[in-house]
């Protein structure tokens, strides 16, 4: 049975206490490098992305830098990251588009971000939430799992879960909810073996196969 209003409010109240000021674990220098880091993180861990970008972002942190580099040089820089060929093309093309269409500035609407090469719903929402403090939800694997497992916002795909979460999360919690749910999924409500006996929202969770100590 799906969670109801009062329980949902209590869940986010408890998550707010546990993660009062949550932030992305991706390291970035400015809004543009955040966009690049999020794009690179697709099917790749944040740790791996940070290891690759820590030296890149010292030298290359503006759209013009990547247009000058070109696809081949970008590819060499990110070669240890999965799907590097496609990601290099997208980084080059979105950098050029940001220069041509937005004078080098990162657009601050979902529609404009979503139109950039290689930018999907998740990437656009992460950038809006992290860089512009917008009340958005970017549904990654952690959030998708938590929403379905605890019956917070069950859905067959990330888009459906995103729509449901935006409807049910109380307004006062929604801006931080993305990172709070992500961190809860990463460290407590894990995929293979959730740590239910340490979970702060255990009594509200509808998961049938809770683990015990």
What does this structure look like?
With 213 residues, the chain is mainly alpha-helical. It has two domains: 5-22 and 136-204, Helix-hairpin-Helix base-excision DNA repair enzymes (C-terminal) (Endonuclease Iii, domain 2); 31-132, Orthogonal Bundle (Endonuclease III, domain 1). The chain is built from ten helices and no strands. The chain has helices at residues 5-18, 31-40, 46-59, 63-77, 84-102, 110-114, 121-132, 141-149, 158-168, 174-187. The longest helix has 19 residues, at 84-102. It is elongated, with a radius of gyration of 18 Å.
Helix content: 55-70%
Q: What distance lies between the first and last C-alpha atoms, to the nearest angstrom?
A: 25 Å
Morphology: elongated
How many alpha or pi helices? 10
The low-pLDDT segments are none
What is the alpha-carbon Rg in Å? 18 Å
Write down the secondary-structure element order. Answer: HHHHHHHHHH
Q: In CATH terms, what is the fold-level topology of the largest domain? A: Endonuclease III, domain 1
Structural class: mainly alpha
The residue-averaged pLDDT reads: 95
- The domain tally reads 2
- Find the count of extended strands (DSSP E, 2+ residues): 0
Strand content: under 5%
Q: How would you characterize the largest beta sheet? A: none
The CATH class of the largest domain is identified as Mainly Alpha
């Amino acid at each position: 049975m799906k969670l109801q209003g009062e329980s949902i409010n209590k869940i986010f109240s408890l998550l707010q206490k546990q993660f009062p000021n949550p932030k992305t674990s991706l390291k970035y220098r400015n809004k543009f490098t955040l966009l690049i880091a999020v794009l690179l993180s697709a099917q790749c861990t944040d740790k791996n992305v940070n290891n690759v970008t820590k030296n890149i972002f010292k030298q290359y942190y503006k759209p013009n830098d990547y247009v000058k580099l070109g696809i081949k040089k970008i590819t060499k820089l990110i070669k240890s990251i999965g799907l590097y060929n496609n990601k290099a093309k997208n980084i080059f093309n979105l950098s050029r588009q940001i220069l041509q269409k937005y004078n080098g500035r990162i657009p601050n609407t979902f529609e404009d971000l979503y139109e950039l090469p290689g930018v999907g719903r998740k990437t656009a929402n992460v950038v809006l939430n992290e860089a512009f403090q917008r009340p958005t939800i970017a549904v990654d694997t952690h959030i998708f799992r938590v929403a379905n497992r605890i019956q917070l916002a069950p859905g067959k795909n990330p888009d459906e879960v995103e729509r449901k979460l935006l409807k049910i999360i109380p307004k006062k919690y929604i801006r931080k909810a993305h990172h709070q749910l992500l961190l809860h999924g990463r460290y407590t409500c894990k995929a293979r073996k959730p740590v239910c006996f340490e979970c702060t929202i255990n009594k509200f969770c509808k998961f049938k196969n809770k683990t015990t100590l």
